[in-house]
Amino acid sequence: MSSPHSVRIDPAPTLGHRKAVMSLTDPHLTTLADYFGIARDYHDWKGQYIEVEEATVIAVLAGLGIDESTPELAEQACREVANRTWRRVLPGIVVLREGQEGRVDVHVNAGEWVDVHIICEDGHHRECWQVDNWTPDRQVEGRWIGEATFGIPADLPLGYHTIVATTADHRATSTLVVSPNWLGLPRSMGSSRVWGHAVQLYSTRSRGSWGMGDLADLADLSTWAATQGADYMLVNPLHASQVVSPIEPSPYLPCSRLFLNPLYVRPEIIPEFADLDSYECSKARSAQAHAAATTETIDRDRSWDSKLPVLEAVHALGLEGSRELSYQAFRRLRGTRLVDLATWCALTEVYGNDWHEWPEGFQRPSNRAVSEFVRAHEDRVDFFMWLQWIADQQLSAAQSAGRDAGMSLGLICDLAVGVSGAGADAWMLGKLFADGVSVGSPPDAFNQAGQEWGQPPMRPDMLADMAYQPFREMVRAALRHAGGIRIDHILGLFRLWWVPAGLGPCMGTYIRYDHEAMVGILALEAYRAGALVVGEDLGTVEPWVRTYLRERGIMGTSVLWFENGEDGHPLAPEQWREYAMSSVTTHDLPPTTGYLAGDHVEVRNELGLLTESLEHERAEAARQTETWIGILRARGVLEGDDPSEEEIVVAMHRMLTQTPAKVLNATLTDAVGDRRTQNLPGTTNEYPNWRVPLSHPDGSPMWLEEVFTDERAARLSRVMNEK
What we know:
It is a single chain. The protein is of the alpha/beta class. Helices cover 36% and strands 17% of the residues. The longest helix is centred in the middle third of the chain and has 31 residues, at 321-351.
């Protein structure tokens, strides 16, 4: 077995005279690209064959720390990567499926005796056995290294085990992961079909929240949904954001995926809040009223600035008894990552949100200056750790509320595809992320200019070297208080579109990841948590990827607007996938009522985003609506000559119930008839992305308390219960 990027590469031959500018026919450049999984060509969304530009490959290699700007450096880089595997006794990680007999290559001094065995999680030892390997010895940095291969037993239990290689004077270890062949449906769900709501929590405000929806609102919303027959509540990423203005509005561009966003904390339900004196309570009431006064858009800065002094006052009261014990247990559980996150938060209050702009001594958590800062600001660092504990408790309460009210799954938490390069994760795990490149997507039918998301990608080689520990921690954190997880852009576990800085998304290329390792770890963590896994597999998808995910028991995603056959016409419901979360719309599309009305066309026209004339786009939107009205009538789910928008929306959801999909989804915006788009791809501040509050059909703000008595929402719930 080898690591995902340990393909054996012989040193490239020394070239004679060549041009200073290399082409992809250059053996050194080609070798390096193949070693790191950099695509040199691909097929675009139209099926056209595309060759990747040389400048792109060179820039991506630079992001991986490979300098091949001259022929000599390129040749040196080839020799270095050729010997990487041979420099270490064991690979960083070996990932197997349950029941699979494995192999591991071991590198020691030529002719040296070596013993290899497995230490299982439960402490039991299992022996490995040597198998034939006739690979010649290799000279590496003046030493002759031999390669031996050992077999790994097929009957190892699921879990994280340790491979141990022992020589006369050395002991090396590696992580061995044994993951489920098939994840499937969690026991709590059984074999029955389920449905649930999707919600953007920040937009769903109650009269008691601080200008944006919070974890207390989530608990109430989950309870209500359970009474409507829902089995889960799919919620936007709750990952940590900045704690200093300006706060990034997009939940899909967090500062950390390992921790929670303290903006979602409700101060009044913290037990110690009751111990505030009358003056502090009065200040808290005034602060809440101030935060809630703005109703047109979600103002995160206003909400946080109002909430922060109250949280500080509660923290200052301290903890007693079991509450202190619980806090200390949380600190031990989350370990040094929690300290690092809290330290980053405290540092941003002094030096700003982008750690690249901090004094050099603070740009890595291991620096002495950072340790001295922590000692000097001990209470402030503790405050941010305490905030994470409070958020964790309130999220746990929200999960319990839904389950106690009858949900089989409770919360399904969304996992963002990446993090901000200026944020805490990039600061904590600096070497894990590639420099000078961003994650994005190539041009497709949805966005023909391609997309650049401003997120540094994780390096596949570093992930393997770190035994995927950051990925394991991230998945575990997302599942801590959830019955399921939705993986945004799950294609990123297979390949990601890397966009070199300054070249634009059209000049990107794909980078391969070890999907066996990443999906295997995901499946193991979900199995242990008893959780459902849904992968958002929309966009440019290699056909085999969906087949692979299905074979591993991971749900896909089906959206009514995109479920078309090879002829381009909508698929009949019975032809939809069984193993998928099926919905009418997503958070990147307008609510269905707004879509049917053509609101998205008018908004894009106002912002100058149309690629065709306004008349053409209006006509196309009207044609699409008429097509769907015809389909719905043919399916017997829509009646009448002049149906209302609500009737069409209800009919579309009734058609979902005619599909074989195991999981059905209805957005809260569709349930209440909201028309406003949450996110308009291709815009930043031109449109209030991620700042649109839940609204009535007429555009007026809608409070959570109104959702509970909304007849329209109740009617849609009755349709979903026809499943």
